[in-house]
Amino acid sequence: MKTLKLALSMGLFAAMTAFRAHATLIVTYAENPGELNSTLVNTSVDTFNSLSTGLHATANWTDPSTGALVGTFSGLEIKSADQYGGANNTNYAVTGLGINTQTVLNLAHDSSYFGLWWSAGDAKNVLDFYSGANGTGTLLAEFTTANLMAKLTPKTLYPNGYYGNPNPGANYQKDSTEPFAFINFFGTAGTDWSSIVVTNKGSSGFEADNYTSRVAAYDPATDGAMPGILLEEINGTQVTPLGGGAGGGIALAPEPSTLAGLAALTMFSFGGGMLRRVRRQTA
């Protein structure tokens, strides 16, 4: 089974690479329910645990093992763990609770992989990948909770599903209406980004933790099968579905010409009629 999954990943990777001639693409995968980190190797992780709570005008992300600069944040708010976020009951990053409406991550080197534990996802959460610094240049891909979590259905509670906070010691039923998942973002061959912009269009908060980055693109020959559940393939605001879904694992990709035909201009919203409570900023 593992060999088959790797073979399918390599087939998918080859198809995506061929399609690269038509567009820059970012492919997303969700790790298994309850996973707080990426299973991809050779990455750098920022847990935000070394930063004090509150707003940081700027903050550096350095690799803990080498001390090398991974990137620089602007407008970064840090909170203590609560029912909405904080992997392993530690600090997490949040955008849009009345202090900051946007957080920008400028990477020290153009990179082709990013991941984060996207917690308490709601309609106002937006994640954008840009070719230039400070959210400039080409918008390579835009993601929201609705787009990423659409295939994580039915809305089954943790430990069998993605809804509710799976953090150790947390009562996952306290936030049973929102998805919590570690999301991997893979750039296809030749696709990389210089900056990532986190936006929350309201006061509900975009909570995330365990930011993970790697300069090198995913390589099935050395990285093995892509981990988790295939979600979407995005070019700007265009969605190209590749199949898969909850329990579906990795799906074979259509021919590149078919992928081009499937692309549809779609703006993402979580919604689905679900109401979102407004959080009160705590001291």
Poorly predicted tracts of residues? 15-22, 243-283
Number of helices: 4
Mean pLDDT: 80
CA gyration radius, whole angstroms: 18 Å
Helix-strand pattern: HEEEEEEEEEHEEEHEEHE
What is the overall shape? Answer: globular
Distance between the termini: 51 Å
The fraction of residues in strands falls at 25-35%
Strand elements, count:
15
Helix content, binned percent: 10-25%
Largest sheet: 15 strands, antiparallel
Computed structural class? mainly beta
Q: Secondary-structure blueprint of this entry?
A:
Blueprint: H1 2-19, E1 26-30, E2 44-46, E3 54-62, E4 69-79, E5 92-95, E6 102-111, E7 113-119, E8 125-130, E9 139-144, H2 145-149, E10 181-187, E11 193-200, E12 206-214, H3 220-223, E13 229-235, E14 238-240, H4 256-262, E15 264-265
Antiparallel strand pairs: 1-10, 1-13, 2-12, 3-4, 4-5, 4-6, 5-12, 6-11, 7-10, 7-12, 8-9, 8-11, 13-14, 14-15
